Amino acid sequence: MSTTHPILIAGSWAEDPSSETFSATNPATGEKLEGAYPVSSRQTLERMARCSAEAASELNTLDPQRVAAFLDSHASLIDERRKSIAEMAHLETGLEISPRLMESEMDRTIDQLRQAAGCVRSGEWVSARIDTDKNLRSMYEPLGGGVLTIGPNNFPLAYNAIAGGDFAAAIAARNPIIAKGHPLHPATTRLLAECAHEAAKSTGMPDGTVQMFYHCSPEDGLTLIRMPEISAFGFTGSQKAGLAMKKAADETGTPAYLELSSINPMFLMPGAVGTRGGDIAQSIADSMLAASGQQCTCPGLIVLSESEESEAMIARLTQHLSEAEPHVMLSHDGVDSLHDAVLHNIEQGAERIIGGNPMPGDAARYEHTLLRVSASRFLENHQELQTEMFGVAALLVVCDIDDQFVEVARKLEGNLTGTIHHDGSEQDRALHAQLVRELRLRVGRLIHNGVPTGVSVNAATVHGGPYPATGHPGFTAVGMPTAIHRFAALRCYDQVDEWALPPELRDKNPTGTMLRYVDQEWTTRDA
Predict the structure, then answer these.
(1) What is the pLDDT of residues 133-185, one digit of tens each?
(2) Which of 236, 253, 374, 450 is deepest in the core (most CB within 10 A)?
(3) Does the active-site annotation cover 492?
(4) In the CATH hierarchy, which top-level class contains the domain 33-124+142-260+475-484?
């Protein structure tokens, strides 16, 4: 009989009273993995919410240095156990151990936790503002309740609900976390939760600072979002699920930060295709093939002009994808969803170049797929032909006149990224000037002569964009300190005595180096 694993609640590991359980599946073999995980009930979630509210009260006045110590300790424990965590994530997701899990994603996970710790230590993320003449002072502070983090299936480490970017940002703002694991990789989440729990105990964080459950019914999840103890939530996943959660959050005024879908359009200018079409084809193929195309920044729409050079580039891209062996996807459900999206685009007028079918066998695999449509047909049916194909699949849009580049861009929905390839020639620069006016309004990150995959974790990164890429265009899910502001409240102190102010807003600079906006000047001096 499989062991039912405990959940992390109120500062300790405890058996979940629910009798309903689930198990993970190895997508490479179709076999059930050992271990059973509880489907938590509404009563369990209510208890978690109450515990998070109690922890929030303590965290509101907790020394930020302790929070930084927790984040650093969590990062170090993950680093110490990277091999066992990567091996488990490989079993549950089919993603390659090295370099994907063991190095690149693991390093990113550890680095963003440590970046968050650094932001807490510097204090500058609070954006302290002081007007000494009017004695008005403001800064970002904790929300005052629990933050629900819901991780996706495609990044079991860097976006994990109890170790990823949302977790790091919300903890940095001194909010308690209720982390919902993803049912595709529960054991990976359990290992990361063990690191978080150990770090919380060793650094003296309040009980209830980090809690974790594996799964719940959709109805109970929406009830949790509506609970008054929940002050915000972060979600990365499907558009349908995200919008249902946002609707529930809107009923109670709960801030919702959603990352939903993106086709990441690429526009290939004629000059660029003519001078380096072969190299562009190789770079696009490599970008599409990474992680079996299961990245939110995978290129899914490629726009280029009708020409002999373009046909040669399409042939090269087709060849690269045809010669590459399809890798295991995250689940058979993911294969089914990809197939539905491919068939939908074909029904809307796209033509199949290669692929378009699930592969036989027990492994969750899908043929590498390229579809093609004329720009005229795309413009006639642009809403339906922007359906995301989450896998190694892309739609080529072929323009017979340059003006159609701009028209296609004008019809795009919001996306995380938009890419333009040009060669700097007068022709490409003239077309670029028209194109970027439309594209800039519709993407969070504009890229020149590159690919959208490979998101840098730094202060200048924007991993966001207009709907439906995200639920709000004014925020980023990646990059410290800007990502922290999603889970913070901006509060003002009017005529408050010096002794009663938070240290960051007192006349004396609390660190001597913190940058504050004092009397209309960014400075490190005392007020």
Answers:
(1) 999 999 999 999 999 999 999 999 999 999 999 999 999 999 999 999 999 99
(2) 236
(3) no
(4) alpha beta
